[in-house]
Amino acid sequence: MPTQNKSLLKRLLIWRYKNISEKTFIYILSVVVGLLAGLASVTLKNVTYFIEASLEKGIIFSQNQLYFILPIIGLTLVYLYVKFVHKERLKHAVSSILFSLSKKRGIIARKQILTQLIAAPLTVGFGGSVGLLGPAVASGAAISSNLGKLFHINAKTRSLLIACASAGAIASIFQSPIAAIIFAVEVFSMDLTMLSMLPLLLASISGVLTSYFFLGNEVLFNFSISRAFEVKDTLFYIVLGVGTAVASIYFTKMYFGILKLFKPLKSPKYRLLVGGLAIGIMLYMIPPLYGEGFSFINNLLIGDHIQALGKTPFDQYLGNIWVVIALLFGITIFKAVAMTTTFAAGGAGGIFIPTMVMGSALGNVVAKVINNLGLGFSVSESNFTLIGMAGLIAGVLHAPLTAIFLIAEITGGYGLFVPLMITASISYLITKNTIDYNIYTRELAERGDLITHNKDKAVLTLMSLDDLIEMNFKTVNQHMTLGEMLHESVAKSTRNIFPVVDSHEALVGIILLDDIREFMFDTALYKTTKAITFMQKPPEIIFYDQDNMQAIMQKFQDSGAWNLPVVKDGKYMGFVSKSKLLTAYRRELINFTGN
After folding, report:
1. Smallest Cα–Cα separation from 94: which of 338, 459, 461, 398?
2. Which secondary-structure segment (H or E) carries 543?
3. In which band, very low, low, confident or very high, does the pLDDT at 246 lie, cut at 50, 70 and 90?
4. Is 297 helix (H, G, I), strand (E, B) or coil?
5. How far apart are CA 390 and CA 418, in angstroms?
6. Cβ(166)–Cβ(177) under 8 Å?
7. What keywords are annotated for this sequence in UniProt (predicted)?
8. What is the tens place of the pLDDT at every residue in 289-331?
9. Bridge-partner residues for 571, per DSSP?
10. Could you tell me whether strands 507-512 and 542-543 are parallel, antiparallel, or unpaired per DSSP bridges?
11. Could you tell me the fold of the domain covering 457-593?
12. Fold of the domain built from segment(s) 8-215
């Protein structure tokens, strides 16, 4: 930053400290963050739609029906951008935000702002079967993180601003401010207090206003409730809840299964080629898998399943409703496959909107099956299409309240509130009891890097092992004599534990001062007795690359030790003391809760 700009920023900060309270400044920043996140969302949508419209008018897409090759082109452009500009592997948008909150104190690289605005439209615009919500949230989060850094905001407030950015992005895309706030609470584990509620509300309103300003009254879904909830349909909504739960479990397992399948392909070029071809084949067979899929959902909502399915190799059979049902069910199955393949091939995007597409197809399938069984039952296909979306969101993201309020706001009222609660709650309960963590959080939870609503676990997650390691322990070589050990280590140490290492600095044991005290003044033993004679096995060992803070705390509890050695890559690093661990825990707890 130029000197003149630094001086101007410094004067601005001084003026702010003197004239604006911390609380007021957070409110101002939450409005700014909401506006910028909303602007990022609008930019993503417009750039993507521009690419799609340009391709749709082209010869390749509309006349020769060769659009199935477009994903390879889009993925290639993303690959080139990542290789020569971004220069590091793309990460899942929301998961990377959660990791930055837990382990980087909310610090997100500035380049993530631009990367999401470029890579996601190229992926989706050229037919990648992913959504734009995740990249919109990630871009907004990067903006808020760097804005907080610019104004010297502390880590806790920076985390709040990142949640505000997510609320602003979601409110802008769906024009649903309440669901946006709830998403921030459910997914980012925010405490719903007045301290966080008002900034989230301000950011959400700002995001919606940004959307209205640039897009007018344009809405994603043209829908109004034509048939209210009837008590006699309750059983069918329970069935839909169970169905969406099964689909949610399938969605999650398929996601991790396909990513695992692509792992042997080390080269990004091979992943791009294999993934791009696989997506192209799926698009040729099932055109609605192209891009995000909002037009597919809208066509189902107005009852036009022929338009929703598009031109397929099975067009001549669409007069048979059961063929239509089979094709819609195929979309339910293959949307998860196409989405994950896009990610595995190197594309950028989110899972939220693909989840909605899959849920809409499944809801419509269930309604069509009920209406065509010949048993005299009749349900609203558009209602089931909407509520199917809620069921998948609740199950896949483990966010039932977000699902309920999002669909309620999209419909412009609460006429479907009861069936939404029935389906979403059943889907969530079954999925949560089957799969502990969702797609966003599973890998973070396995590494112990996930912040949850459990304050104890959240505080432990925020703590860093690097801050706790003490390195002022004098090491002892296992082949030292007693005299050498006393002269070179014991006499120069203020500690009562001595780690024993070999010639490769690997930890082989420890020696306690109490164990050598009675032999210290027996000079006859100085040359004849080796240090290894007094060595014992440590009660536990902390492995730097494996143990998270919860595991470390458990090791102290189980062993009863006051000091435990730390080993990294097989080599001794230092010790962690229980007193320092508890002190750090208490300090982090105060910072986390504000008490």
Report:
1. 398
2. strand 542-543
3. very high
4. helix
5. 12
6. no
7. Chloride, Chloride channel, Ion channel, Ion transport, Membrane, Transmembrane, Transmembrane helix, Transport
8. 888 888 898 889 888 888 888 877 777 878 889 999 999 999 9
9. 568
10. unpaired
11. CBS-domain (3.10.580)
12. Clc chloride channel (1.10.3080)
